[in-house]
Amino acid sequence: MQDWSAIEGLGSTKLTELFAKDPDRLAKLTVDVGGLHFDFAKTHLDDAAIDAFTGLAATMELAAKRDALFAGQVVNVTEGRAATHTAERGEGNPDDVAQARAFQSRMRQVIDAIEADAFGPVRHILHVGIGGSALGPDLIFDALGRDEDKYDVAIVSNVDGVAMEEAVKGFDPAATLLVVASKTFTTTETMLNAESAMAWMREGGVEDPYGRVIALTASPDRAVEWGVDETRVLPFAESVGGRYSLWSTLGFPFALALGFQAYEELLEGAAEMDRHFRLSEPAKNAPVLAAFADLYYSQVKGCETRATFAYDERLRLLPSYLQQLEMESNGKSVTAAGEPLGRNSAAITWGGVGTDAQHAVFQLLHQGTRIVPLEFVAVVEAGDTLDPAHHRQLLLNAFAQGAALMAGKANADPARAYAGDRPSSTILLKDLDPRTLGALIAFYEARTFVNAALLGINPFDQFGVELGKEMAKAADQGGQTFDASTNDLLARAGLA
Ligand SMILES: O=P(O)(O)OC[C@H]1O[C@](O)(CO)[C@@H](O)[C@@H]1O
């Protein structure tokens, strides 16, 4: 039974007073792990809040739930399976780790074969997938693959044909490797995009486009049925959830384009964060503290959203990635046992890129009536080679925003006054490389898990996405009427 009374009874001391009251505040609320520095000092967490949340974590059996996750037990109770994404990076039940390693070494063999020209010329990689089968790979490429010129990589997710047409512009069909990424190998958007990519290759003179396809899937039989040769199907375990799948063979395009070693480093960075999450006490555990702050704002302070601002162009896709991770995992109205949640589910995740966002949405963050807990993500080492003034301005702005939001500023003119006491946390990476990115993503996964555990949610299913898919199929098949508004829209677009 959830007991939030101790948490709801917490005082509401201002952030600046929290600093004044406790000279050790910074040391207490900062954590260093895997090349990442986490600073939660500008949140309202204090000793009392951490104690209260630690009590809730004990009641909600966080430690046992975490151990069950890493032991490969059935934690996805509504679908009756484990969630074995951590085994992909070597942290899990030995059988799951062995299976992951076997699939990964098969992936390596295929990469070696491509490198040895077994597929003929490959200069372009066209990856089709959606949701978890695109967002993770897209984030990683955008963050780490910018200087990569061995392959051109395009990731197509949207069913809008504009996306596919745009992606293949400048690609030579005869030098393109088509990667079809779908856990289920049934997703409408992905299968249609894959068919169109095949048609494009045929039209481009490729006689046997199937010979240029790699399938990444947990449903290898369906991929074979679709026409992919068994030797070019790279399976991963059914127990790896879609939004947690980038560590599995779904990381194939990354491992091919940036090298298997980079892929291994990504996994090692994540494994380091896994060990930190498993072994550190709550008060010094980065994902646990982050989740305590999330829950303080969403459950006690009624904040409806939280926002991540990446002060690094290379991490501009992080907010989109986090939207799926957090909202698909924890946007639920019932507990794992099917009982009504009885409180708010996860906050709405949004965000953007600094400094652009400062000139667009930060007005509301500084002076609006809604409090949005913010997160700044920045990297000490610059990603560019221009005048260091660029990176200096980037970081100065990130840190200044957090300081300004907290400090506020009085003014006799109310329109020019800043209330302050607006919370933020900062994640500072020493550098952006496969290891630190792996650790960062694993941090978010663990934080999402802790939020779920303390709310009693199963973060590993996503039934909420099914109804819309069913209705789109029904509309496609025709013969079914909907409400007057939908019928009218279908008719106006010539679809009825
Ligand atoms: O990898 P698949 O099976 O094509 O699914 C794509 C995405 O669709 C979803 O099931 C939601 O519609 C996501 O959870 C998943 O990442």
Automatic annotation (TrEMBL):
UniProt keyword Isomerase, yes or no: yes
- Look up the EC number in the record and give it: 5.3.1.9
Q: Superkingdom of this entry's organism?
A: Bacteria
Pfam families per record:
PGI (PF00342)
Q: Which InterPro entries match?
A: G6P_Isomerase, G6P_Isomerase_C, Phosphoglucose_isomerase_CS, SIS_dom_sf, SIS_PGI_1, SIS_PGI_2
Quote one Gene Ontology molecular function term: isomerase activity
Instruction: Name the chemical reaction catalysed here.
Output: alpha-D-glucose 6-phosphate = beta-D-fructose 6-phosphate
* Keyword Cytoplasm attached: yes
Q: Where in the cell is it found?
A: Cytoplasm
Q: In which pathway does it act?
A: Carbohydrate degradation; glycolysis; D-glyceraldehyde 3-phosphate and glycerone phosphate from D-glucose: step 2/4; Carbohydrate biosynthesis; gluconeogenesis
Q: Which residues form the active site?
A: 328 (proton donor), 359, 469
Q: Which Gene3D superfamilies match?
A: 1.10.1390.10, Glucose-6-phosphate isomerase like protein, domain 1
What's in the keyword line of the UniProt record? Cytoplasm, Gluconeogenesis, Glycolysis, Isomerase
- Coarsely, its chief localization is cytoplasm
Entry function? Catalyzes the reversible isomerization of glucose-6-phosphate to fructose-6-phosphate.
Similarity field: Belongs to the GPI family.
NCBIfam families membership: PRK00179.1
Q: What is this protein's record name?
A: Glucose-6-phosphate isomerase
Q: Which organism is it from?
A: Sphingomonas hankookensis
Species classification? Bacteria, Pseudomonadati, Pseudomonadota, Alphaproteobacteria, Sphingomonadales
Q: Which gene encodes it?
A: pgi
